[in-house]
Amino acid sequence: DPFKNDPKRDKKLMVLSARPCNAESPEEELGSWCTPNETFYVRNHMWVPEMGAGNHKLVIELPDGEEKEYTLEDLKAKFQEVKITATLQCSGNRRKHMTQEARSANGLQWGVGAISNAEWKGVRLRDLLADAGLNLNDLPEDAKHAQFMGAEAYGASIPIDKAVDKRGDVLLAYEMNGQPLPPDHGYPMRVLVPGTVAARSVKWVNRIVVGEEESTSQWQRRDYKCFGPNVCAPQAKWDEAPAIQEMPVQSAITSLRDISCHSATDRKLLQVYGLEEDSVAVEGYAWSGGGRKIVRVDISADDGRNWHQAELLLDESRGSKAWAWQRWRWLVPRWQAGQYFVVKAIDEANNVQPAEYEPHWNFRGNLTNSWHRVEYRHMG
Ligand code: MTE
Ligand code: MO
User: Fold this and answer.
1) Domains along the chain with CATH numbers
2) Predicted local distance difference test score (pLDDT) of residue 52
3) Model pTM greater than 0.95?
């Protein structure tokens, strides 16, 4: 049984498939700045491989064929430790909305929870590559991609520029929210590529190859790509489409609830917003790829006719760029609440989310980021 090493999992996770385990974070768990390790979404293509921290070795191979090995202890002893906050988002996050609002898209039908945020500790990939002998100041011509191999055979790659960027913060991570990486998230170490589709953050990594080519794995070459809305599986020209790396701007509503002026705790929140009547509180996340900061979150309580700006909540973000999500909140008097709440975010490059789903439909349902619309039901 290849799944014999799969860990016991928190019952709060919403399981989409058990073997391999694919489970999303429930909406209640997406409200905190860092998602608890137990309820951080899980996306496994196969089983959780058997890993011993003591005998685990990470091999780095350079374009000239030179190899160097590192244990977890080597990483901790030889390199500067770095802590960053970063959000991981699966390219299939919100695929369910694409299926519901446009047409059926192929893959796991994730809601808003194929995304989570954590504080990661590890060492910089660029420091390792330099130690292994790669000349970062004058990269060899044939150093074009960094390929990552996982112990269970999953693999992916990123462009070398991201891998060695001083402000790219690509890590070999061994801690998550102050704990050793849990088995589901890559124990004893994973690659963490902030700002990039989570498919490139290879778990249980045991080999890194710098070379001319992208990873030859099916997840680099025959998956995690986008096509036009007219293309279905038989017409897809996989070799011509670029592998998804940086992600587009995204936002979603994770909580929509009635707030009453008769409740003491709710009253405190109402006061902060200068409201003295029963209201609706709406909360969620916004995030963009490439470390692009979220500069504004627009929210509507009447299906997009009138817009307001949500409050951007303050959190302790760490890292060279805005790798972590922006949480937000907005309160509106109940009488103003129509049938649908809608959210859209804007990042620092003024990228916006599309209003419609159909023009962005792609048969694999990747990168669904159209306006998130949630029906409001008064609790009475
Ligand atoms: N790494 C390995 N070795 N095996 C995998 O199946 N899945 C990838 C990526 N890294 C995967 C992997 C995908 S598609 C995603 S979305 C993220 O891991 C999920 O990371 P998480 O399970 O820690 O949330
Ligand atoms: Mo993913």
Assistant:
1) 2-240 (3.90.420.10), 250-375 (2.60.40.650)
2) 80
3) yes
